[in-house]
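Hi R.,

As promised on Friday, here is the backbone we talked about, encoded as structure tokens. Could you run it through your design pipeline when you get a chance and send me back a sequence?
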């Protein structure tokens, strides 16, 4: 666990080495959810062929994705309807549709079920519009107060390239 913001200083590796085990677990679980079983178990096909080295074996073990989908269906079910007594146009339903609430909620549940964590980012644009986004938990770095499990900072870090240059963009959220 991270207990200070020193991992954001120039020259530090990204992602932070202290978070490598968590990142590896996310990658493994994401591969399982997406049906990339040989990325997780490289010898799987060999075991299924009982040691034969023929190519072209086909098998379907896509249960992780099916379980995640069914879990989301059970949690969300029929989407709830939002009503307001103030206006007949249902302004709450309009907000829910505008921010893509159901799509974000579905992605959050999938991340929580298959990866163990889910990150929701709420923000306001400069013109005052509300934004809601599902953030891949591999981009989330909780920073705790030393000696406790209390999270004091939530760092969202995004690495990207522009031509030959690499950049790191991050948001630091604190209570």
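Update: got your reply. Pasting your designed sequence below so it's all in one thread:
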């Amino acid at each position: 666990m991270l207990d200070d913001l020193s991992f954001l200083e120039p020259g530090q590796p990204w992602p932070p080495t202290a978070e490598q085990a968590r990142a590896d677990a996310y990658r493994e679980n994401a591969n399982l959810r997406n049906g990339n079983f040989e990325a997780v178990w490289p010898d799987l096909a060999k075991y299924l062929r009982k040691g034969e080295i023929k190519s072209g074996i086909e098998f379907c073990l896509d249960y992780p994705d099916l379980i995640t989908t069914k879990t989301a269906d059970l949690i969300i079910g029929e989407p709830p309807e939002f009503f307001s007594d103030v206006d007949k146009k249902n302004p709450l339903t309009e907000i829910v549709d505008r921010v893509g609430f159901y799509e974000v909620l579905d992605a959050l549940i999938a991340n929580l079920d298959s990866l163990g964590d889910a990150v929701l980012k709420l923000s306001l644009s400069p013109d005052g519009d509300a934004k809601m986004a599902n953030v891949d938990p591999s981009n989330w770095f909780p920073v705790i107060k030393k000696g406790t499990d209390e999270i004091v900072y939530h760092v969202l870090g995004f690495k990207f390239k522009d031509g030959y240059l690499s950049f790191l963009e991050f948001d630091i959220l604190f209570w």
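One thing I noticed while checking it: The longest strand covers residues 151-162.

Thanks again,
M.
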